[in-house]
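ok here's Proline--tRNA ligase:
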Amino acid sequence: MITRISKAFIPTKKEAPKDATSLNQKLLTRAGFVHQELAGVYSFLPLGLRVLRKVEVIIRKHMEALGGQEILMSALEPKANWEKTGRWNTFDVLFKLPSQHGTEYALGPSHEEIVFPLAKEKIESYKDLPFSLFQIQTKFRDEPRAKSGLMRGREFGMKDLYSFHATKEDLEAFYERAKQQYLLIFKEFGLDAKVTEASGGAFSKKISHEFMVLSDAGEDNILACSSCTFAQNTEIS
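and the structure:
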């Protein structure tokens, strides 16, 4: 669809918002790609939404190449699911919503509490494995201080991938294939990402892997080998 520039909704600004601290926040709001509604919460305007949808197309292509099946899970999650995993009172950035009927819900920061019961209904034997599910969805985290513009907000879009396997060996093989697809995604965006060892955070006690792109606007520090591919976040060094 072609829109005449004179009719295009592109509310540019001469100055960045006074509370803008990150470069991406300043540039995207001034150029009319996004509009800040409150700290850590943004609306995507026509230009920003066009970019976002193109990003989603690329990510979706590589997840499907990995064998992932796309789903869309609910943003509201049952309190009982979070209590069962023990994270209702330990996940420190969880939005908890009381309803007028006395029921409490979680506003999803991630979807482990939804996807695993869902998968359990499907898995009757090892013959149903392996399979993987992914979604591209809005997430919510009650961050004490929203920062880094769109990079770390209270409401944000995220692609999450969940896989189910009969053996540890099959899981590890899939994990390596997934890492390669993520690297291809960054390459398609023109970014040189480094696979970096990091903490599993609230999700795992094991070492996880982050995909780091060197940037003057970055907030993390990594140790990277100049003659091999090893890299590690200094938070665990």
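+1. The first helix runs from residue 23 to 30.
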